[in-house]
Amino acid sequence: MNFNSFCSEGVTLSGTADFSGTININTEQLSQFTLTFSNLTATLGSDSLTLDGDITYNFGPPAAVTMDMRQRDNASGKVYWVSDYVMTVSEGLDYIEFAVSGRFYDPDYGYVELSTPTPFRIYSGQDWPSQGVMICTGNNNTKAHLMVMPSAPPPSPTPSTFAVSADTNGDGIYDWYVDNLNWQ
């Protein structure tokens, strides 16, 4: 695929990418595809990034996206990296659930490992999750823990809130905590 100032929703792409996939011959539907790119330039306003990596989408169920991508900020030269990132999305009768795992690297702050031991669940008609846990593990086993404070499924009159706790020194004990935070 060749992108020559291709613009969609304010993002302009220039460069090349390889596209491959699999079609289910019984349903004639795309079941999986992979997009691989090197030196693909993405511009949004005055921000310009050079992208290298690959993204694979498996239609499932459950649907799954895997990604390994480096993003160079062309103004600063800093490189950000998403490594072994996986997001799965499952549909229930009146909700969707999603889970993530992988590593994010920031050149100024280091890396964090992301995991969702309890998938996030969002009910139809709701803006925010009613359940879920995400853990971010950093250098020296420091951790941040986000937990959705459960609410009743719709039509619940009260939206869910969330709590954040942190193990700031990596000793396995969460030593900072705040709860009843509202989604923005």
Strand order of the largest sheet: 1-2-3-4-5-6-7-8-9-10-11-12
Global morphology: globular
Q: Helices and strands, in N-to-C order?
A: EEEEEEEEEEEE
Distance between the termini: 38 Å
Mean pLDDT: 92
Helix content: under 10%
Q: How many strands, which pairing sense, and closed or not: the largest β-sheet?
A: 12 strands, antiparallel
Sequence stretches where pLDDT stays below 50 over 5 or more residues: none
Number of separate structural domains? 2
Structure annotation, total helices: 0
Over the alpha carbons, how many angstroms does the gyration radius reach?
A: 19 Å
- What's the total count of β strands? 12
Structural class, from secondary structure content?
A: mainly beta
Beta fraction:
over 45%
Question: Would you write up a description of this structure?
Answer:
The structure is a single chain. With 184 residues, the protein is mostly beta strands. The protein folds into two domains: 1-91, no CATH class; 92-184. The protein has no helices and twelve strands. The chain has strands spanning 2-8, 11-24, 29-44, 47-58, 63-73, 79-91, 95-106, 110-123, 131-137, 143-149, 161-167, 176-182. Strands 1-2-3-4-5-6-7-8-9-10-11-12 form a twelve-stranded antiparallel sheet, with no helix packed on it. Strand 8 and strand 9 form a beta hairpin. It is globular, with a radius of gyration of 19 Å. The mean pLDDT is 92.
What is the element layout, followed by pairings?
Elements: E1 2-8, E2 11-24, E3 29-44, E4 47-58, E5 63-73, E6 79-91, E7 95-106, E8 110-123, E9 131-137, E10 143-149, E11 161-167, E12 176-182
Antiparallel strand pairs: 1-2, 2-3, 3-4, 4-5, 5-6, 6-7, 7-8, 8-9, 9-10, 10-11, 11-12
